[in-house]
Amino acid sequence: QRRHAAGQRVGLDPRTWLRATHPSNYVLLAAAHTAVGAALRVAGMNAGGGVVALQGVGSALCAVAAAVWLMFFSAAMAVYETTSLPLRSLPLLDFGAPPPPSGEEGEETAAAGGSDEGLPLLEVDVLICGGSISGLSVASLLGRAGVRTLLVERREEPVTDARFLFCNPATMDILSKVLDPDLLEELRVQRAWPQHAPFGTILATGLAHEDGSARCRGSALGPSPASLKADPSRMNAITESRCVGCASSRFVHPTRCMQSHQEQVLKAQAERCASNEVRYGHELLSLAHEGVEEEEQSGTCILALLRPTGGAPETRYRVRCKYVVGADGPASRVAELVGAKYDGFLGLNKSRSIAVVVPGLAARLARTIGFAHQYWLLRKRRGLGLVVPVDPVSDLFNLMPFPVGELFQQSPARVAEEMTGTSRFTLKQEKPWWWNFFVARQFSHGRAFLVGDCAHSWPPFGGLGGNTAYADAFNLSWKLAAACRGEASQALLNSYDIERRQAVLSTAMYVLGLVPRPAAMKPLLAPVFEWWPFSRWMRLIWHHKSSGLHAANHFASSGIMFGGKLNFSPLVAREAILPPDDPACGYQPVLRAGARLPHLLLPDGTAIAEHIANDRYTLLLLADASATAEALRAALQARGVACQVARVAAHAKGQETSGGQLAFEYAKHAMLVVRPDLHVAWRLKLSARPPDAAAVESVADTLSGRSGGGTDRWAEVERSTDYDSMRSYRLFMTQRFQAKLRPLGFAFPQATKVDGVTKAEAIAAVKANARTAPAAKGEFTTTTKATDLPAGGKEPAAATGSERTGGEGSKEP
Q1: Cβ pair 609, 597 in contact under 8 A
Q2: How confident is the model at residue 322 (pLDDT cuts 50, 70, 90)?
Q3: Is 65 in contact with 523 (CB distance < 8 Å)?
Q4: What Rg value do the Cα atoms of the chain yield, rounded?
């Protein structure tokens, strides 16, 4: 990758193929098994007599090869799809101009009863619809920048059921920028899992079963965060994968914390900001343009109509704002009003989650089969499922029976008793949910922006739903802050869609490789699942999948977390196209324009990311480049763009990866321009000649999106070859994603394809699909609804949870 960035010839990195757990090697192994098996079959047929048994051996090898191919081919293809780049120029793709926010305000007003001219009017800079983790993050970051923000959420309070749990190291870096130190400590320590709890998975036949059936059939556990902190030398490559940590983050381990706790902490942060107003129990009715003819970006142009959730017509009020952020989940009202279109599949499969409190179970597991992050439970002739201790302090467990066997069809109380092995439990909630997979074709529509599940949603495999939502918020918030200060160009606002959709498509293709195909695997594996040699082989495969460093590992995705590159971004003075990192082999830090700023601990004990501003560019001086920094600062100031200058002593130490190779060397650079989202926008090497005035002006033009006179350069950017390359790459990624979706139609024949249509049209197609079960047509939704259960679990109570409006990754184990 470093040779590629330097313009040198690039060969295949042998480390990619020397890792025994890389999914591509399993495909090669399957091919080798097929060749040997075919040769033995031919030899047996030709020899006859005593060596006819060779045919049986050859057939067995071919069967093993087919099973290996079935399980690992999609994972290997996910690596290829995620890391490949176009080799030729592609025809340009135009999805059409984004439609303006629809003028449905009149319809809503008429339905509500009368004109809205005399309704109360509130003026803010940004209206955020949805109190999700992404919406609250945007509100917190904008509030810290002094932007007047109104956040509205349909629910009366943050979520209470078991949803998104896993904040990976990249997300923890983001939260360190979002939260005040005391709230960050509350999230990481007081509300998170105990630090002594290990990471990993245990394969068991029971938990608290008294009949002797609770046995540990396999374990893939890594050290606990506490032990890693005491002895960082244990952070080798495999340990890094098992622990989901990454040496390239200031947090060597992630934080396991319920989404309900995350939302409560983020809500407290948003309410701390004097410029913020947070209103739960309020909903958006309509959006309409106001003053469309105004060219000035700082002008107010959107008029929203809101009311308390389910309120009377006289409780409606208007909000005039500059920008709208849709963070209201899969059933987004903002996406509906702006006419957002999606690609993907709906109704792939149906699952259910049951939240249950089992007093003393966490302590019992620690004494018996061992405590783990999650348990794969095999109940012979009854079914299998996943048990996640979402809050071990309060003994809250999330039970997810798989749609295989009779267990999936049982009542919540019967499922809880069968999976926990005890009748001493308290049922909390049941939540059925569908596997849906969709990505919006555009993340920005004029002055409306989509983040989190509003823009993309997929099943929880890989643990990347909520973490991707945090990345959306981090990318968008500083751009909106600059826009509200009057510093934003059209390129700055358009860059959100360009950068984030590229990253989300890479993540989506990676997740697609992790989605199991039950309809295809069940008829092949079920007949021989309990055959001893096959079950033993399956346990070995499971152990590698749970602990090895490869794409099939549920959470090992540091290449996705940190390895994304801002290729073709109009805000980056790029030197070359940087290929994305292999998600299976991990993140390779590189100090290049468009790449993420590599993590570095400075001699004073601080992380280099702590010196980066939250809402403006940072000119990071690593050596004596004061003259260049001052010239660039003046050029940016002339274009109305604020920046800060920070001097750090980074040359005293390098940073090494767990593999021992030097990942980067800050000492070779005199200055870096770093964006608030921790990506390098421009760099100046010590060996390079100091830029002249014209070069400084060119860099300032790129970073600001404006010319020296302060005029917007977006029209000039659209005529450039770089813009054509960006559109070609956008087409390339879209076509790859659509091609990757096609096999889902065969693996899930009951699913409904979504191809450039709105969410309402897609749901109508689900109900019109002849393959969809009649019962499913009536209950299908893109959201999840938690139903409170009585303690005895006999009959469910009335649903108290509202349809999900913003819980990214809500189904995540």
Answers
A1: yes
A2: very high
A3: no
A4: 27
3-state secondary structure of 308: strand
Query: DSSP letter string over 21-77?
Result: T-HHHHHHHHHHHHHHHHHHHHHHHHH-GGGTHHHHHHHHHHHHHHHHHHHHHHHHH
Q: Which two tokens stand for residue 5?
A: 């960035």
Could you count the other beta carbons within 10 Å of the beta carbon of residue 89?
10
User: Contact at 8 Å (CB) between 170 and 471?
Assistant: yes
Please give the C-alpha separations between residue 14 and each of 2, 20, 236, 462, in angstroms, as whole numbers: 14, 12, 19, 26
- State the CB neighbour count (10 A cutoff) for residue 118: 8
Tell me the C-alpha distance between 270 and 143, whole Å.
7
CB 550 within 8 A of CB 556: yes
Q: Is the dihedral of CA 246, 249, 253, 256 positive or negative?
A: negative
Q: Which two tokens stand for residue 59?
A: 């057939």
Give yes or no for a contact between 146 and 187, defined as CB atoms under 8 angstroms apart.
no
Q: Which residues pair with 129 in a beta bridge?
A: 152, 326
How many C-beta neighbours within 10 Å does residue 660 have? Answer: 8
**pTM of the prediction?**
0.82
- Tell me, what DSSP letter sits at residue 275? T
> Would you say residue 136 has pLDDT above 90?
yes
Q: Which residues contact 322 (CB under 8 A, 6 or more apart)?
A: 125, 126, 298, 299, 300, 301, 302, 447, 483, 484
Question: What's the CA gap between 559 and 534, in Å, rounded?
Answer: 33
| Percent of residues in the chain assigned helix, strand, coil, to nearest 5 | 40, 20, 40
The H or E element that residue 119 is part of is: none
Mean pLDDT of 270-274: 95
SS3 category, 717: helix
CA–CA gap between residue 100 and residue 103 (Å, rounded): 9
Name residue 445's beta-bridge partners: 448
Closest residue by Cα to residue 613 from 648, 650, 647, 644: 644
* pLDDT of residue 206 exceeding 70: yes
Contact 444, 97 (CB under 8 A): no
Q: How far apart are CA 245 and CA 254, in angstroms?
A: 6
The amino acid at residue 351 is S
- Taking the CA atoms of residue 692, residue 695, residue 697 and residue 703 in that order, the dihedral angle to the nearest 10 degrees is -140
Do the Cβ atoms of 222 and 243 come closer than 8 Å?
A: yes
pLDDT, average across residues 422-433: 86
Q: Cα–Cα distance between 475 and 615 in angstroms, integer?
A: 10
b/e map 5-25, b = 16+ CB within 10 Å:
beeeeeeeeeeeeebebbbbb
Q: Which two tokens stand for residue 579?
A: 């290929």
Contacts of 362-371 spanning 24+ positions with Cβ under 8 A: 362/389, 362/392, 362/393, 362/395, 364/207, 364/208, 365/207, 365/208, 365/389, 368/214, 369/202, 369/204, 369/207, 369/214, 369/215, 369/216, 370/202, 370/216, 370/219, 370/221, 371/197, 371/198
Give dist(CA 739, CA 591) in Å, integer.
33
* pLDDT bucket at 213, cuts 50 / 70 / 90: confident
Q: Is the model's pLDDT at 572 over the cut of 60?
A: yes
Percent of the chain at pLDDT exceeding 70: 70
